[in-house]
Model the fold of this input.
Amino acid sequence: MRKISIFGATGSIGQNTLDLLRRDRAAYHVVALTGGQNIAQLAADAREFGAEIAVTAHEAQLPALREALAGSGVEAAAGAAALVEAASRPADWIMSAIVGAAGLAPGLKALEQGTTLALANKESLVCAGRLLMATAEAQGARILPVDSEHSAVFQALVGERLAEVERIIITASGGAFRDWPLADLANATLAQASSHPNWDMGQRITIDSASMFNKALEVIETREFFGVSPEQIEVLVHPQSLVHALVGFRDGALMSHLGAPDMRHAIGYALHWPDRKHLPVARLDLAAIGQLEFRAPEEARYPALRLAREVMARGGLAGAVFNGAKERALDHFIAGHLGFTAMAEVTEAALARIEAEPGLIDDAMTLENVTRIDDLARKAVDLLVAQRTG
Ligand code: NDP
Done:
């Protein structure tokens, strides 16, 4: 039986992962399941799968979790340290699907144990890509991409040589506002930003898709994971979300991955890698689809893409600043303190502030330094928002 842990089990990726495990229950032993506020879901899944331990990120939720697990034999724990402890428990495969920089410490701990990490939590690669990749290499641990674009690139590279890759093209649906008049974007509401045309995902990544902050993170993730240069990475708007990525080789050939917009594709590939097993996803009927549509992303609509290029050019801990600032700007948008387009403005301003502090961005990439600069970026955003709202 394969030993599996799922970090962020109560979320969209976590639930899709459990859906796949459920189809072949006898093959898996669940070690740890983690969640945040959704104690009822966490406890129900931990009971169903007979998990060894269930962990909520929030210490205040521990009594509720204990109560929900009473008599089940499942251990209950809470807090950031408990998440890291759970990641140190022996497992064959760990799904990293916490949302945000909070996923970094448990993911890093899993790699330190030499565990295979299925990585949906792109934020950790953006914040600390070199640290994660170096840890994986030192421990002989494998990171398997779960983001659909990166899974697509990973699949297109099977049997190929990275040295022969000319470019990597990741596609973007364009999000909820791809066809809106630019002048209307500033007034986009939370409800409008929270609905995705193609994918059914958590709220934060859905809003990040509308602003393309998600694609900006993915561009950086591509650089960190595949080690290509920023100039080799392109973004292509593809409203249908059927072609997930393309890899261009030096002979001009483009290899692409097509599939229904269903995260169980990428999760299943990572779960069964290097094998392919049957997955319960829709099969594409290309004749019925008829046409595939592509266009270049508009710079004015998606300033986050320009910021990603600047962050990659800056290097150091700029990725952690960018991610922390954009996560906090998103908190403020969700809370109604910031307009939709102001998220990019505030993120850019926070980056400039932290960059102006001598030495900070060039500190060594350790978990402590990344955590510290992430916190500084969030505080810079809070200050900027307070100034804007007067
Ligand atoms: P969700 O918001 O649906 O789920 C997030 C999970 O993280 C939940 O289990 C949540 O718990 C938990 N969580 C929230 N805050 C914290 C915290 N501070 N500490 C620990 N756990 C926390 O997100 P998604 O499943 O959509 O996304 C998860 C990750 O996967 C993200 O990094 C996202 O970018 C990436 N991803 C997602 C895709 C998708 O299709 N959804 C596609 C590709 C990548 P609770 O809900 O109980 O509060």
